[in-house]
Amino acid sequence: MKSNVAAFEVITNQILRKLEEGVVPWHRPWSSPAGIPKNLVNKREYRGCNFFILSMAGYASPFWLTYRQAKDRSGHIKKGEKGTPVVFWKWLNIKEDDEGESEVIGKTIPLVRYYTVFNLAQCEGIEAPKEETPTFEWDPIEKCEEVIKGMKNPPVISYGHNKNCYVPSLDTIRMVNRELFESGEDYYATLFHESVHSCGHESRLARQSIVDICPFGSTNYSREELIAETGCALLCAHTGIENKTIDNSAAYIGNWLTKLKNDKKLVIIAAGQAQKSVDYILGRTESESEESEE
């Protein structure tokens, strides 16, 4: 457990980073068992800012534990996994002299600490508690299915993961199971976003922001997220599901525009890259993609 001074800064920075990513702290479009993050050992639900911090991490499992708790259960943290800081605080009663006088005054101050926890999905050798996972009726949308299945040289789409992401080194889109999404629109919007990322692979459009290593917060990282969400919005419009996703897309894009300091040239370039990805996914030829003023 780390001490006082750094606690507020660590937790605040954690939330700010997620907000900069366009993450809505109180919502994600897929469900997890029991929903609310909780400690694996004592089953105590995390409250306050800890609820938001752990919800924003994006894991399907709601269970978290410390390094020591994992070790005590003969398990271990997977190599390379990074923990998530959460805050612990309580009120302490102290006594102090009043300006050098002998009178003693009782005073209450907050004691704040932060410590690191890991999601159960980041651990090995620890069995998950048996809990019922809320699911939704899976209702595929025909036009969206046609888009995904019609993509030439597609990446592998793998299900059953704890996060949705595109892994360039494996050329694989990782998705949580479809029945965990609250609606078909949410599922396809997420898959469209990751599919646009995959278009940047060296075997397709060889986009610099995918081919090169782009650390979080870098210009290329920010540009790539803007490309992916803009392309997602275009595909949602093409398939007619934009009314269900446009609010989230607009908020997401708005956050990245702020991140990029509203660089209008960069926005135009990103939009052009997004359109190229959409054309690739839809199998449009160059002549079909050209705009005309006639």
Helices and strands in order:
Layout: H1 5-20, E1 38-39, H2 48-56, E2 63-65, H3 67-72, E3 76-77, E4 84-97, E5 104-119, E6 123-124, H4 142-150, E7 156-159, E8 165-167, E9 172-175, H5 184-198, H6 208-211, H7 219-239, H8 242-259, H9 264-282, H10 286-289
Parallel strand pairs: 1-2, 7-9
Antiparallel strand pairs: 2-5, 3-6, 4-5, 8-9
Helix pairs in contact: 1-2, 5-7, 7-8, 7-9
Structural account:
Helix content is 41%, strand content 17%. The chain is α/β, with parallel strands linked by helices and 294 residues long. The protein has 2 domains: 5-124, no CATH class; 142-289, no CATH class. It has a 4-stranded mixed β-sheet. The longest helix is centred in the C-terminal third of the chain and has 21 residues, at 219-239. It is globular and about 75 Å long.
Which key phrases capture this entry?
alpha/beta; globular; 294 residues; 4-stranded mixed beta sheet; disordered N terminus; 10 helices; 41% helix; 3-stranded mixed beta sheet; 2 domains
Structural class designation: alpha/beta
Beta-strand level of the residues, as a percent range? Answer: 15-25%
Quote the distance from N terminus to C terminus: 67 Å
Helix run count: 10
Element order: H for helix, E for strand? HEHEHEEEEHEEEHHHHHH
- Kindly provide the radius of gyration, computed on alpha-carbon positions and rounded to a whole number of angstroms: 23 Å
Total strands: 9
Instruction: Point out poorly predicted stretches.
Output: 1-5, 23-27, 287-294
The major beta sheet can be summarized as: 4 strands, mixed
**Multimerization state:** single chain
Total count of domains: 2
**Judging from the principal axes of the Cα atoms, what is the shape?**
globular
Q: Mean pLDDT, as a whole number? A: 77
Largest sheet strand order:
1-2-5-4
Share of helix among residues?
40-55%
